[in-house]
Amino acid sequence: GAVVSQHPSWVICKSGTSVKIECRSLDFQATTMFWYRQFPKQSLMLMATSNEGSKATYEQGVEKDKFLINHASLTLSTLTVTSAHPEDSSFYICSARKRDRGLGYTFGSGTRLTVV
Amino acid sequence: LAKTTQPISMDSYEGQEVNITCSHNNIATNDYITWYQQFPSQGPRFIIQGYKTKVTNEVASLFIPADRKSSTLSLPRVSLSDTAVYYCLVAAEGSARQLTFGSGTQLTVLP
């Protein structure tokens, strides 16, 4: 199979603090991982693409200094929301692509971030 | 990236067959069609993938006409637990290109 574990599943933080979300591919190596954000009743919006060992590519309108992405190994990518504000409250989802599996996109279970 | 168009919502009753059609007029030759299911507060879950004609697995069938400009996801005998949002996506096999999500179809199964 291809399992992606995302942690934590939910987090509440105070405004101005930083929150780190982890995305792990448990049984495969992921050269590429994607981070999405989803607001209530809306579709998933791609935030950034991270490739192992290189800098992430951010979509237009996504602040790279606010949403720090690190993909230091083939099994782990992290998204850090820095200086979080209430408008950053959302559902964050990661996706990983298995190296030798063609499309093979598998999604994590998501992280519900609430900034108070 | 091929854009997809789906109905925003559909209602059905338990036990009925549900067909959700997706339009992707500018699909590229090397694009595959993939459907995902998403429940509230969960990540999308892979349902089925195909390139042409018909594909069937234990949960659904996917019908793709010869011109590949559309596809239909068929869910046999739906139950209340099939209430979810269904997304149709197209992407090239072997590409690191990200999946682009359209609006999806909210399927509501009624008792």
What does this structure look like?
- The complex is a heterodimer of chains A (116) and B (111).
- By secondary structure, chain A is mainly beta.
- Chain A contains no helices and 11 strands.
- Chain A has strands at residues 4-7, 10-13, 19-25, 30-38, 45-51, 57-58, 67-73, 76-81, 90-98, 105-107, 111-115.
- Chain A is globular and about 40 Å long.
- Chain B has 111 residues and is mainly beta.
- Chain B is built from no helices and 9 strands.
- Chain B has strands spanning 9-13, 18-23, 31-38, 45-50, 53-56, 61-64, 70-75, 84-92, 105-110.
- At the A-B interface, strand 4, strand 5, strand 9 and strand 10 of A face strand 3 and strand 4 of B.
Structural descriptors:
heterodimer, A: 116 residues, mainly beta, 7-stranded mixed β-sheet, 4-stranded antiparallel β-sheet, 11 strands, 54% strand, globular, B: 111 residues, 5-stranded mixed β-sheet
Helix count of chain B equals 0
Instruction: Give the C-alpha Rg of chain A.
Output: 13 Å
Count of individual helical segments of chain A: 0
Helix and strand composition category of chain A = mainly beta
Number of strands of chain A: 11
Order of helices and strands of chain B: EEEEEEEEE
Task: State the gist of this model.
The complex is a heterodimer of chains A (116) and B (111). Chain A contains no helices and eleven strands. With 116 residues, chain A is mainly β.
Give the helices and strands, then pairings.
The complex is a heterodimer of chains A (116) and B (111).
Chain A lengths: L3 E4 L2 E4 L5 E7 L4 E9 L6 E7 L5 E2 L8 E7 L2 E6 L8 E9 L6 E3 L3 E5 L1
Parallel strand pairs in A: 2-11
Antiparallel strand pairs in A: 1-3, 3-8, 4-5, 4-9, 5-6, 7-8, 9-10, 9-11
Chain B lengths: L8 E5 L4 E6 L7 E8 L6 E6 L2 E4 L4 E4 L5 E6 L8 E9 L12 E6 L1
Parallel strand pairs in B: 1-9
Antiparallel strand pairs in B: 2-7, 3-4, 3-8, 5-6, 6-7, 8-9
